[in-house]
Specification:
CATH superfamily: Metallo-dependent phosphatases
Number of helices: 7
Shape: globular
Number of strands: 16
Strand order of the largest sheet: 3-2-1-15-16-13-12
Distance between the termini: 25 Å
Structural class: alpha/beta
Amino acid sequence: MDLVFSDIHADIDALDTILSMVSGQEFKKRYGEFSRILNLGDVLERGVHPKEVLSRLKSLQETHPLYSVMGNHDEGFLYNRLVSASSIESIDAHAKLTRDDTSFFKENSDGTFGDQEFIDKKYGLFCVHGGPLDPKKITPQNAQNEAWLYQRSWQRLTEEDFEFFTYAGYHYKPSSAFDEASRHVKNHIILCGHQHQESVIMQDGGIHYLYPTLKPTREKISGKILEKREIEVDSSNNYLIRLGIGGPEGHYVKNSEVPHFAIIQHEPRKVILFAIHP
């Protein structure tokens, strides 16, 4: 079983809440024990405990396989690019990070950091922070200094019937995402975060927005209310599943969100979206 989270945003309380929940005996009895972790990016910025979050992730690497992709806020901090909505307190906390703290992010031979995607062909997973489109295919030749906004870490799922670029990134249609992922993985599940809201889209010849049809249920585990939505995966279809925000400290409207995460069960194949309520 895989544990998946995205957009922790330097929120150590939320990360520890998720880890405590999935490591508890009651949760493991009902859903199983996770054997690896998929981190969909944005572990930094907006929140105020980046050092603690990076330390916790390093500790997890010692006990579990942990696969991470870069988020736009991770890049914003590491490349000194201004990204919105970090408070003075958050900026100050991040300024105190040392090289040892940020060694969590792999430095590549070309001077960049981390990976833009994690592809698992065995289980049909295409993991990104924002979107799976190949930047080389969508970046205009005259983009110049704006080319980084077309990267997978910045791509955004559009609610329109067309694709477009803004300074928030390249906005893509689900059909384009499925087309690109199909070049890498047959019968795939695209996993992403970035936009802080859950979404589930299925392709079976057509495009179907499943999230509104998923009836949420609630149960009490480890003294908290766990809200869940289950997605039964048909191996002949493709899916795009966007996780909700993992770290509420990273949300624009403070105290308006709760920690979100997901698990992937492989036999039978199922993805379950969770939100942890007090």
